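Much of the work behind modern protein science is quiet bookkeeping, done one molecule at a time. The protein below has been through that process, and both of its lines are reproduced in full.
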Amino acid sequence: MGDILIHIETRNGKPQPVAQELLGAARSLAAAVGGEVEALVIGADAKALAPALRAADRVLGVAHPGLEQYVPEAHAAVLSSVVRDRNPALTLLAYSSVGLDLAPNLAIRTGRPLIAYCTKMAVADGLLEATSLIYGGKLHATSRAPLPVVAAVVPGAYPEAKAPADRVPEIVTLAPPAALSEVRSVFAGETLPPAGAIDLTQAQKILCVGRGIGDKDSIAVAREVAGALGAEIAGSRPVIDNGWLPKERQVGKSGIKVAPMLYLAVGVSGAPEHLEGMSGAELIIAVNSDAAAPIFAVAHYGATCDLFDLLPALGKRLAERQNT
């Protein structure tokens, strides 16, 4: 039926962690699609990144001065051009802030159906069947569309791809499309955290509080546990929007992407936007009284209890251990 094309998100010349998850998804579907897996690198050094993308059969690279920084208009022009030329049966992007820019744009430019929020995918009889999280992850929807299809995959939905360490994918350099000369947007700069602000991307342990914490004053009990664990305190978007924690402590699509050794999510429901920011954590522990909360789909361990019962008890136990 055709190949599978993966859009590889990069930052500072390196693939984002979700790239390995997309490769894992593609490898699980390759046999059913009947083609190979191609990874598209836009604006970064494809040859240098090939060892990190060895689960792909082929790494495609498009280089141009206008692609060195992420400009949605320019990257969309390249992606749509590559899809038209190579005509993959399935194009996979991350359901991320970048994927939100590019996936709908690509679908419109190429006339292909788009299925977003995907957590599971299967191909049979020329159709892609996908399960998607909707309404903030509270419901699962099943959609079917005839190939070729564009799919945006929720980070954390698929395990990372595994490939032999000595495997080297083919590297193909593609010419930048003529449409780049018509791009009107320019990269003006990026907003950096204020001086002295905590950099959550460097934290090895994070305790994140969600809407379930109730109010700003209740965060104090979470701070005590975080201090005993040697963890940084963070919040989901509702917590930040309510002004209970500063913006630099927000984890999720509109906040920071983190990958600590330990991520303790307390009162966090686990909407796709939040999962994007923390699914790369090595160990995820979730505490939520709602057993159906989406956070449990990515958590390694979970407790369906009242966080105000668990946190004081946990803080006390940690304090006792420190004093022995």
